[in-house]
């Protein structure tokens, strides 16, 4: 199922991290139709990060990338998720620069999985 990694600078207060974790999990379920209970979200705030946009240092930045199985979401679903995810990021961290990205990465079902089984194998054995 989906895996999302959000990289942020600077370190955010625990309540913002908790809210983003919940919001992103809920959005992935609502906008992309993924199972809430199997959605993994990792939020990282590297302590020695140097983030630049246009070669200029940024005091605040974010990058969200989510991996899903290729062919399981329409362009409209991905568009909606990207818009809603950026809305949530801006609510939590208003100072985000315009060049903050949300990426939906489609991976072939045979290239990833969980609990030792690929997504392709799971799809073949669904009732």
Automatic annotation (TrEMBL):
SUPFAM superfamilies: Tautomerase/MIF
Protein name in the entry: 4-oxalocrotonate tautomerase
Organism of this sequence: Roseospira marina
Upper classification of the organism: Bacteria, Pseudomonadati, Pseudomonadota, Alphaproteobacteria, Rhodospirillales
């Amino acid at each position: 199922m989906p895996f999302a990694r959000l990289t942020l600078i600077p370190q955010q207060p625990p309540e913002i991290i908790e809210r983003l974790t919940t919001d992103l999990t809920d959005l992935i379920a609502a906008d992309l139709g993924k199972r809430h209970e199997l959605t993994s979200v990792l939020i990282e705030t590297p302590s020695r990060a140097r983030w630049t946009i246009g070669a200029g240092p940024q005091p605040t930045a974010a990058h969200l990338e989510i991996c899903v199985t290729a062919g399981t979401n329409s362009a409209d679903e991905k568009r909606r998720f990207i818009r809603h995810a950026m809305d949530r990021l801006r609510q939590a961290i208003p100072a985000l620069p315009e060049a903050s990205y949300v990426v939906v990465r489609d991976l072939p079902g045979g290239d990833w999985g969980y609990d030792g089984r690929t997504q392709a194998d799971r799809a073949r054995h669904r009732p």
